[in-house]
Amino acid sequence: MPQGDYRAAVVDGGLALSAGMTPRVGGRLTVTGLVGGDVAPAVAFDAAGLAARNAVAAIVAALDGNVGRLRRLLRMTVYVACADGFTDLSAVADGATAGLRGAAPAAGLPVRSAIGVRSLPSGAPVEVELTAAVRP
Asked: Average pLDDT in the 17-29 region?
């Protein structure tokens, strides 16, 4: 469910794009803070997995719940809100990759970027955006 005035995911032609998804369950963040500061990398790994699963769920919802229309995961961007000096972004992003493996194993793994930022919405430690190819 969006935490603002936007769509969680859109489908246009053969593409589906998610908004940035954070590690929420029932609309509530499961963890807040900066990775490498008050959030341990292992906790951020799990949070990234949850955020990635939320991105897949948003895309599937935009496909009217028809997961069979999800053809291929194309691109994932993982934003990590991190403390100064934290550089192990890829290890945190591996959590998002693990989340995709569990949520959409038949859709393959996408290319990926892991980007460190100062802050994310509501104090989330990670945010994941996903682009996928879909069937008509």
From this structure: 97
